[in-house]
Amino acid sequence: LEDIFLSRVYKFWLWSDFIFKFTSEYREGMQYIRLLQDLANSVFEEKKILYLDKSKTNLKGKRKAMIDVLLQLHLETKELSKDDVMDELMTFLFAGLERTAAALMWAFFMIGLHPEVQQKIQEELDNVFGEDRERYATEDDLNDLTYLSCVLKLECYADVIRSGHTIPKGASCFILSYFLNRDESVYPDPEIFDPDRFLPENAAKLPDCAVVPFGAGQRNCIGLMFATMELKTILSSILRNYNIKSLDSSRCTSFSYVLLSKL
């Protein structure tokens, strides 16, 4: 879907919905969308049955999951239609699965290329978990994994927001984070894989909003905490038991966007 989206962005003649609907890219994209819709619909129907069966879902005094909040707004207050709920579910499924998987892929790739970073991660894991390689990570454990957080912040390639420029009324803005995250005035040697730059004593020197892979302010990404905990849980579980080595030892690799990045 991302490839199709980018293809449409760069081919101005596909900006017209009328023209785009006659292309093979449109037909292929609709196939992917239908798969997501089918998955979202199955989740909706399954959770709806559980929600209506009060004997199996005692939510009193408990924090509700997002799907339960959406179902309440749909079934009880009627503030949301089924289509509204389905739109939100598709957003969660696409962002929660695809984005997290991509972040994990690049995290493992970079950790495998840098054994010295991997060693620091495993030393921190030993300090937090001790000899127990099977224990599930608690929220406190994840909060104690400060160096692993630095690795993830680096892996997300944080955005850098610059001020001082006038944006005309009605203008559309597109942030080229690929270049912003390589601003040498903010990140010395930006092409170097160096999680230490995000340690507390170093992060304090960064400008405000220098690390915003999930956005900032009241409208930041709703999945910030969940995605961070998910990534740290998976990484900590695997790196407690295994050493990672990247089969491709080259310092350059190609992204699906057909950009070449020095790593």
From TrEMBL:
Its main location: endoplasmic reticulum. GO terms for cellular component: endoplasmic reticulum membrane. Its cofactor is heme. It is found in: Endoplasmic reticulum membrane. Pfam families: p450. GO terms for molecular function: heme binding; iron ion binding; monooxygenase activity; oxidoreductase activity, acting on paired donors, with incorporation or reduction of molecular oxygen. InterPro entries: Cyt_P450, Cyt_P450_CS, Cyt_P450_E_grp-I, Cyt_P450_sf, Cytochrome_P450_Monoox. PROSITE patterns: CYTOCHROME_P450. Heme binds at residue 221. Belongs to the cytochrome P450 family. This is Cytochrome P450 4c3. It comes from Nephila pilipes. The gene is Cyp4c3.
